[in-house]
Amino acid sequence: MSVAKVDDNRKVTTRRLMEMKQRGEKISMLTAYDYSMAKLIDQAGMDVILVGDSASNVMAGNVTTLPITLDQMIYHGKSVVKAVQRALVVVDLPFGTYQGNSKEALASAIRVMKETHADCIKLEGGLEVRESIERILCAGIPIMGHLGLTPQSINKFGTYSVRAREEAEAQKLIEDAHLLEEIGCFSLVLEKIPAALAARVASELAIPVIGIGAGGGVDGQVLVMHDMLGINQGFSPRFLRRYANLGDEITEAVQAYIRDVKSQDFPNEKEQY
Ligand code: KIV
Are 189 and 151 in contact (CB under 8 A)? Predict the structure, then answer.
């Protein structure tokens, strides 16, 4: 398979994402949590790399995103930033590090920026976390918002099904999206909401709106790397397109290695000193 050619090797910035929206160029975004994968993803030409708190699920094996700590996110963020030359790197603020009060939120965001050297942070929620967002923005730290299915609130929702199908929830989401833009977020993720609602939000906002399970009417798409590469095989929602089946390939490669070790086929004469 040929690797996408990226003709523009300049570092992606928040400003460049805005320009991409203005000229109708779709934004590509994918998660990464470690140096080696981040390097491959960056070299392939990804616009935005998200060090998502989905690391809690796919790296640490937790059922939800809630247990991951700020120290763990910083560890993943540092590893990714070291590998990336072109993509904009976004690090998620984990659950419990920004909802309590705005000073704590600023302290968490400053730790992420100082210790990882990432370009910006992402956090979940609208009006409820307004004060935290404003304080972080005042310190010059760019914020990507996240509305719709916000996994850090899974215990309130009780389900990972599509959000904002009902009029009242859709209305609140629209208001929150406008609020995030007004107070200065540079972009917004919309997760698992009806495509028509997501398209409406993207058309009403000037900032780029990136969707996951939110249809094609938004300004870009984000997926979790382990899902789209077929490493996380137990997860197959309708919105997920699998671009590889690495889970099967890894299992086959590991089994071949075990066979070769047991049969003494590995190492052969050329593979020793
Ligand atoms: O943590 C994550 O991977 C995310 C994406 C699902 C947008 O927030």
Answer: no
104 classed as catalytic: no
Question: What sign has the CA pseudo-torsion 65, 70, 73, 77?
Answer: positive
CA atoms within 13 Å, Cβ hemisphere of 12: 24
Q: Which of 169, 222, 180, 220 is nearest to 199 (CA)?
A: 220
Q: Give the distance, in angstroms, between the CA of residue 196 and the centroid of all CA atoms in the same chain.
A: 22
- Tokens representing 6 are 């990226």
Q: Rounded distance, CA 123 to CA 209, Å?
A: 14
42: which 2 tokens?
A: 């960056």
In the structure, what pLDDT confidence band is assigned to residue 6 with cuts at 50, 70 and 90?
low
> Residues 177-215: pLDDT tens digits?
999 999 999 999 999 999 999 999 999 999 999 999 999
- CB of 144 closer than 6 A to ligand 1? no
| E-only strand ranges, the chain | 27-31, 48-51, 88-92, 120-122, 143-148, 187-191, 209-212, 220-223
**Is 212 close to ligand 1, i.e. is its CB under 6 Å away?**
yes
Ligand 1 centre distance from Cα of residue 224 (Å): 7
CA distance 234 to 210: 24
Site to substitute for ligand 1 among 28, 46, 65, most atoms within 8 A of C-beta: 65
CA dist., res. 198 & res. 13, Å (int): 23
Q: Is the CB of 189 under 6 A from ligand 1?
A: yes
